[in-house]
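ok trying again, last paste got cut off:
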Amino acid sequence: DEEFQGLGIAKFLFNCLIGIARDREISRLYGVIMAGNARMAKVFESTYIKPEICEDYGEVEYVFDLTPVKK
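nice, full thing came through this time. structure:
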């Protein structure tokens, strides 16, 4: 719905998803969007985990490595 656009809901939910995946010891998350979907690209690219990005055939794939960083 248009009234909910731009409120940061997608970013909030995606960060929740990252937390859930880490709790379940999932090592990677994958997201595929259409190349022209600038709003979702902004959500994926603004997270605290920087994704690997691969463009192919009008789609953009984002791969988020969730393995813990060793200190």
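cool. Helices lie at 9-23, 38-45. The chain has a mean pLDDT of 91.
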